[in-house]
Design brief:
about 220 residues, six-stranded mixed sheet, about 25% strand
C-alpha cells in the first residue's frame, strides 16, 4: 500500500493495510472528571504488532487531527477487545464486566477527550481506515450523538446508540437499567437464601426467595 514507483532500492518499509482492527464502541459515560471517556476496539484478525494502529478524535466538527493516541507494541488475538481509557477509574463503573476487555490501555490517553458529539477515527500505518460519526460535523443533535452515553457496533456491523444522558446519576453499569453497555453479560436471577448467616445460604443466589433457615 506504500509502493513507491520512483524507488530502486527496497528499504524494507513496504506494508499492506490489513484492516485487522475495528472500532467497536465509543463511550462518554457521565462520570466525574472525564473518567467515563473511552474508545472500544476489537481485533478481527490476529495482530502481531498493535502499534501500527492509532486513534484520533475529531473534536467539535473540526475535521481530522490524525493519530492522537498511539497504541502499544503488543500482540492481540482475533476477537479480543481493547479499551482505551481516559482514566482507570472507569473500571469502578464496569465492575466485574471490566474483565470482558482483554486489553486496557491507559497510557497517553489525554487525547481521549470526546464529548458525545465528536467523531472518532481509526488509523493503520497512519492511514484512515474507519470512522464513527462525521469528521467535519459537530454531532450535537445528529443521529450519532452519544453525550453521557455510548455508541456500540453490533456483530452485524450496525451502530447502536444509547439514549443521550442515559448514564446521568448512575454509578455502575450493573445499576444502569436503561442503557447497560452491550459487551457486559446480562445478569441471570438466581433465587435462594442470600443471608450468609443462614444454614442454607446459597453463594450463587442474587435474589432472596425467603427460604433461609436458621439453627
Amino acid at each position: 500500500d506504500n509502493y513507491n514507483a520512483s524507488a530502486n532500492t527496497d528499504d524494507g518499509s513496504c506494508y499492506s493495510l490489513t484492516y485487522a482492527l475495528s472500532l467497536k464502541g465509543v463511550l462518554d459515560l457521565s462520570l466525574s472528571s472525564s473518567n467515563g471517556k473511552a474508545i472500544h476496539l476489537r481485533a478481527t484478525e490476529d495482530i502481531a504488532d498493535l502499534s501500527v494502529f492509532g486513534v484520533g478524535v475529531a473534536n467539535n466538527g473540526g475535521g481530522t487531527d490524525g493519530v492522537e493516541v498511539e497504541l502499544p507494541a503488543i500482540s492481540v488475538a482475533a476477537g479480543e477487545d481493547i479499551l482505551i481509557v481516559r482514566s482507570m477509574l472507569i473500571s469502578e463503573y464496569f465492575g466485574d464486566c471490566f474483565s470482558e476487555f482483554e486489553h486496557v490501555i491507559s497510557e497517553g490517553t489525554s487525547a481521549v477527550a470526546q464529548n458525545g458529539d465528536d467523531a472518532i477515527e481509526l488509523f493503520e500505518h497512519g492511514q484512515h481506515i474507519e470512522a464513527f460519526g462525521e469528521l467535519d460535523v459537530d454531532g450535537s443533535g445528529q443521529w450519532w450523538e452519544y453525550e453521557d452515553s455510548w455508541a456500540y457496533k453490533n456483530d452485524g456491523g450496525a451502530w447502536m446508540l444509547a439514549q443521550p444522558n442515559c448514564t446521568d446519576g448512575v454509578t455502575t453499569n450493573a445499576d444502569n437499567e436503561s442503557c447497560p453497555y452491550p459487551i457486559c453479560p446480562v445478569p441471570i436471577d438466581v433465587s435462594g437464601c442470600t443471608d450468609e448467616t443462614a444454614n442454607n445460604y446459597n453463594a450463587d443466589a442474587n435474589v432472596d426467595d425467603g427460604s433461609c433457615e436458621y439453627a
